[in-house]
Design brief:
Shape: elongated
Radius of gyration: 28 Å
Largest sheet: 7 strands, parallel
Strand order of the largest sheet: 3-2-1-4-5-7-11
Strand content: 5-15%
Structural class: alpha/beta
Distance between the termini: 71 Å
Number of strands: 13
Number of helices: 20
Amino acid sequence: MQTEVCGSNFPSACDSFPSSFFVSPRFLSSVSLVQRRTLQTSEDHRAFSGGMASIADYYAGKNVLITGATGFMGKVLVEKLLRSCPGVRALYLLVRNKAGQSMEERVNDMMKCKLFDRVREDNPDFHLKIVPISSELIQPGLAISPKDRETLTSCIDIIFHCAATIRFDEPLKHALQLNVMATQQLLTLAQQMAHLQAFIHISTAYANCNRRHIDEIIYPPPVEPKKLIDSLEWMEDSIVREITPRLIGERPNTYTYTKALAECVVQMESGSLNIGIIRPSIVGASWQEPFPGWIDNFNGPSGVFIAAGKGILRTMRANNDAVADLIPVDMVINLTLAAGWYTAVHRPKAPLVYNCTTGGINPFHWGEIEHHVMSSFKRNPLEQAFRRPNANITSNYLMNQYWILVSHKLPALIYDLYLRLSGQKPQMMRIFNRLHKAISLLEYFSSQDWEWNSENISLLMSHLSPEDRKTFNFDVRQLNWPEYIENYCIGTKKYVLNEDMSDIPAARQHLRKLRNIRYTFNTLLLVFIWRVFIARSQMARNIWYFVVSLCFKFLSYVRASSTLAN
């Protein structure tokens, strides 16, 4: 679907866009041809049979290049390769210096993570297979030294491109640099690799969220990526910010917009490379591997779960009946490795796209998530909760705003006043403001449904041996949602907040204390209302006595009815 870029009411900056900025008919024709070739490849895929090595055997002796290895999905990918494909020769990780840490320090910190405990038990020297490469994705040539470039081009067998900015509110220029231009430069490097067998690009299932039904094909881009990059290069940041809403059109943010452009870059500049594209939906904690519930960040649903468990989040605007398309991170990584194996061995004629989602196969709804998250945190409470967990989801805007005022802002103001009076720095209003911003960014995805075709997923699964299906399991039909949500909530407690499970009795005692405080407060509030309003008004007293007498009459009627029945 083509999005109009310039209109009559568009800011004056749009006049500087050349007419060729729009997607040309010739390009659309080429995209349609590639779509037909992709579907034909699926037919070839269906006819393909047997004779291939197992996934672990394929990766044995291979040199693998990974971008984004220090991120959430990248870590799980590295761990899974080392644990389930122990014969892999080396993992080359493109890493940059960050926050005063060198790339070596960042990689060493990553390998000390609890995530690698199982690998460490099996092979204490696993770190010898990790080769960090200094790189900066937004710099020309990825800022890779000539020596490292020569090493990579001479030995790499497969590339997993996981690096991206996942911030929904990222400025468009920066999102383009990280999600589109970096992909373009990595493809240029890949073209120079003598032994490369597969290039696997991690996209997102929401790259085409402007559509309700999404097939496993690469859709025409809203604009031609190269011309967009050239046009924005000379613009001031203020102008780019001003025109961004018009550019992204029906998409909710720069993340989904630039990921759609990145897919088109992969398609247009892949040349003779064997390409696979993975589109995961909302990636959550691990299902089984390396252990249930592993998570290391506050992104996406994790931060919402923690805020609800702490009693900070009381209301969220979402559709209770909308599908919450969560996908466990280990399932995404298992699919990624299986797709890498299949792409390298089968060498499809056009990029194969895999919609890695759960909604169409094993749906779970936001209303169900609310129930199971609250139940889990009441059984396994977080330490030092602000209030008892009791969040509610509503799709009504006015009702949501009412509860934000009553359950979020007023308690925050009262608590901040208490902190000021006790000589401490107020912080709750700032926390709530950040929470509201994060939730508003998720609202688009929690209020509606999409339908994703997953034929390529099914076809890939049909080519796995029974052993590979077990070792690299991405069958979402096996996912037990209540159990998964329970482990997810426990995972946020253990791995994100670093809380000890042995302290749960104390946390439960704290919740009971909060309950008693709430009951006391409600009682005092009732007495206050009585003294101020009811006790001073004859009409209010008459209404009150009338309501109480009705209640007594009803109770007497129920008691008499039960006596007669007996």
